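Dear support,

Our group has been running a series of protein-ligand predictions, and this particular one with succinic acid is the one our PI (initials K.S.) wants archived with full inputs and outputs. We had some confusion internally about which version of the output was final, so please treat the block below as the authoritative record. The input we submitted was:
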Amino acid sequence: RVIMDEFKIEDNISYKNLFKPYGYINGEWIDLPKGKSFNIYNPSTNKIIATMPEMGIDETKYAIESAKIAFDKWKKKTAKERCFLLRKWYDLVLENIDDLSVIMTLENGKPLKESKAEIIYASSFIDWFSEEGKRTYGRSIPATQIDKRIITIKQPVGVSALITPWNFPAAMITRKVAPALAAGCSVIIKPAEQTPLSASALVYLAQKAGIPKGVINLLVANNPIPIGKELCENESVRKISFTGSTEVGKILIKDSANSVKKVSMELGGNAPLIVFNDADVDIAVKETLASKYRNSGQTCVCANRIFVQDGIYKKYSEALAKKVADFKVGDGFEHTSDIGPLIDNSGLKKVERHLDDAIAKGAKVLTGGKQPSLGGLYYEPTVLTEVAKNMVLFKEETFGPLAPLFKFKDVDEVINMANNTNYGLAGYIFTKDLNTAWKVSEELQFGMVGINSGILSTEVAPFGGVKESGIGREGAVEGMDEYMEIKYLCFGNIM
Ligand code: SIN
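Confirmed final output from the archive:
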């Protein structure tokens, strides 16, 4: 079932140990009969790298049943025991960083250096929650009657379904699985159809670490709808955590309503990045590059609309375009590549649609603006000037390497423009003025604000959005609470 012929560095590495083109339920790797399978493609070459079983409702029900049985035992382990196993998983992930990175670049296309950075980022969630799991403290509350005593305890929410995207094939899994397991929940993972091999490699390492059967289950499929529906509607599943589009998030929330599940949604963004006249241009450019072009512009927190004040517009746009023009586009396995391919044809078409619409409405290309000679799913990193609010790229998340530079005059104007969106995930501001930094941070209707920083993501801070960008937070203590219920205990007649 493994088709790896075209893979260049095959002979030098041992990634095949981690190459598991299967689902995983109740501690067993599951394949299905021929004909019930789907292909995984390398977006750099469009070649098939593996086929995997097309799982559906039957496998989903089996996974839920297994997770339910496992939950009863897992929740009774001490936090220390659970966290010890998480720690072993963390060690194994780092020991296998090279192989995990290769698998990720193979199925996602991102440059190998970005895949490595992602594995470190992914492992940080296991590390952090393996510690935090020991500190899920309740509270002692002073009672209002003399004979009463009040405390709260935290308990795991139960079987948790985790639905993850292709843009961070490892980190979005560990950001959910690590707190869920540390809290005492069992999980069912449904990774994106484009990138299930990073997921199965991580699950394999969790199995090696000794995580008991049924505690982690993995469902894979090209058609996520039957699986998603069953996970949302089945009463035994008590938690849905999803990272992906707002459109799909809304469906999952609706489908979970009948069984009133706890939900966490990390959905789309339309991040403003604001550069004020007093900003340090070098810092603003460096951080814009990090925010905008990470993963070829395919992150929910990538700057989508860049607002630059009129006094600095020329200097900033020229400096940015110069750096962007230096980026090397190419196969993720080439050491020189900074920008890999887009994930699929619909991703490419969206970038082209945004660019065509902007050009038709008067935008100018400062650099990029087309596919490079490599063709395929590659797109040149692009900077556009003379963009305006009536362009599609103002409203929609591009999810590609396209940086539109809007011009603004004053603070009130830019706050209005930045907040003029249904989304509210991340925003960024660049200024040396503390007053501007505070005022604008408070006014921005976004869940996270970077001040003179284009990268916000870390395991120690709560990641998440407001408005149609989501519900709940991931990472930090808040991320652990997403997998726990608070129980209030009232002791009476204490004399
Ligand atoms: C995302 O794009 O969904 C997550 C990005 C991050 O964790 O930095």
